[in-house]
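Q: Second attempt. The first request was missing the SMILES, so the protein and magnesium ion are both included now.
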Amino acid sequence: MPLSWILLVIFAIAAAGFWFGTSRVLKSVDQNVRALHSLPSYYGGNVSMWVLVPSLGVLAFWSLAQPLFIESRIAYLLEERMSNQGVTLGLMMTEVRRVADGLDSAVTENVMTTEEARSMRVELTDIRNRLAEVGVALGANVTAPIVHAAQQYHQLSATGNMFKSITVIALALAGLGYALLRTTKDFRARNAVERGILAILLFAAMIAIMTTVGILFSLIFNTLEFFKIYSIANFFFGLEWAPSFSGRGGSSSLSVIPLLWGTFYISIIALIVAVPVGIFSAIYLSEYATPKVRAFAKPLLEILAGIPTIVYGLFALLTVGPMLVTVFGDNTVGWMSGGTAVITAGLVMGIMLIPFVSSLSDDIINAVPQSLRDGSYGLGATQSETIRQVVLPAALPGIVGAILLAASRAIGETMIVVLGAGAAARLSLNPFDAMTTVTAKIVSQLTGDSDFASPEALVAFALGTTLFVLTLALNVLALYIVRRYREQYE
Amino acid sequence: MYDLPHARSDVINSDCKISARNVQLYYGDNHAIKDVTANIADKTVTAFIGPSGCGKSTFLRCINRMNDTIDNARMEGTILLDGEDIYDSKVDPVQLRARVGMVFQKPNPFPKSIYDNVAYGPKIHGMVRNRSELDELVERALRRGAIWDELKDRLDEPGTGLSGGQQQRLCIARAIATEPEVLLMDEPCSALDPIATAQIEELIDELRQNYSVVIVTHSMQQAARVSQKTAFFHLGNLVEYADTGQIFTNPQDPRTESYITGRIG
Ligand SMILES: Nc1ncnc2c1ncn2[C@@H]1O[C@H](COP(=O)(O)OP(=O)(O)OP(=O)(O)O)[C@@H](O)[C@H]1O
Ligand SMILES: [Mg+2]
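A: Got both inputs this time. The predicted holo structure:
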């Protein structure tokens, strides 16, 4: 039974359950709703919940687990049979999956009977022709073992699907029966539904958290691989970033410090630009601008925030860089030799962050209650006194949060760095030097045809982990600041 | 009907402090104040009474131009303070509000310490030269606001962490710390227990020696106790405005009579 059918059946059972639950409980009290603990719809909802939640949960789990299970079995079989043919297992498995899919559709389109699709004795040519009819062309490299494996694959998943359908629908019916049995007039359906809703929300939260944990694990796993072939001390405390392109790690210097320094330097310049401008424009927009100006300027700012960063990167490369060179270049003071520099990327990144900071701060300032402003005006304070001494302090936790969010965006930004700051990792205090950041190097280490097992590629994961830890620390710091401030003033 | 300790006409010192002429106020299309004309005397407590939504707060906010901060509010007519039109373009509303202080209907302490809440006005207006003067001023304001004894050990705590009644008294202390000539109080005792209410009423009586006080209240007893003049508003109109004694013993308008005897409102 295809997935859509199973879902349809489950939802039909749930709908019926809703109706059964409602009518059953109403009947038990002779339609007298006041005698019930909860509203009738809660009883129905409780039954639907018992139908849906367990069956959909199992369905989701089974659908994820079944292919994994089948693939591991088929791969094991294939490996035994074709251990010495020089084709990688991954490639063969791709073929097997393709043929198996072909068999699936051949059966559903009635080109082949279920028996034929399963039978191992059918000639290869026959299968080839039949599959061509449903639009699956088999190449010459599809040998008999592969087709047999595919048949097995097909068969296993067909059986699996059948059991899946049976189990899931049985579960739905069991849930229906169980919940209906508990549907009496004294049953606290309202509380049960409340708990059910809590469970659903919790589940959603769990997915978010588990994904994060999953990402973290894959990062850590590869990072550990990297540290097996490259020394931790050199990574964290070395002062040079010089990956060799030919060597196998021995001659590369892969130290994070020059990259972190670049990230830090560029982000600081960006924040120096973005924070004051952003906050001042937020104050103007929320406190001084007339509704007309506001209605026009706020969406405009938000459009700015939506410009892809690659466009800002081009702006850095083509406009800001050359402009800075004419001001600080060899023709004048001679501080700047090329357009790509920390200051170029920092300025452009700052411009990119302005709408981000101002839009968030504007919302936060707007959320400060008018009664506080009234209180201040009522004491004879001017508008700017009110803003400085009442509105901004009240909005501060939110504004700090906005700034730290902007900081993490700056740290994670890549495109502007690649185009504006150059690719040279360098430890220097001069803002007119070209430098590069962690993110830009992650990209350059993983693109190109380097071997994924080499330290030059694996270092990207170590860099990623470092960045992750840094951003995490930044967020924790933000939370800490905000919370301390809240404790003081709530 | 009510006991009227201050309603003797000999205490009413009636040179006029505020004079409102044909005041109209619109919130968009909503005509909230309809042609109100009234004189508010100096060194007098004036009570505004009337059913909820009749425009008491709105009229009060006209007197210190707080309605300027509401986008869709539009005022017509004139209000004179000491003979000077407060809506004249020469008048700085900020300066005006320092002279005409206000206690709001909802307590609105700043998210600052109790001390800083009270010190806010004096600091802005440069009323003190040093910290010890400020300390004194804050203590005096809190004492007059009948809250010093409760809070003297907690001056560093945030004002927003106080109980509703404490916040209300803190806001009163904050308003009198700037020593305004006119104090507008919008239901200043709505969240107070009888003892604190009595203390605030004492304060109002004391303020009357030097200032003019306007108080909005829903308590007839309070209006009778503290005020010398009473104005009754109804649906945006100033229905009756007279000596408190007269309003409560011999109201001229039937609407006033039904309101104070509890039949409307
Ligand atoms: N900011 C505002 N915007 C629009 N309409 C308002 C605003 N404030 C008050 N109003 C309207 O003006 C009228 C008078 O309101 P006001 O607050 O002056 O009443 P009030 O007499 O103080 O009532 P209460 O005793 O309940 O405080 C009401 O109809 C109210 O809906
Ligand atoms: Mg009011």
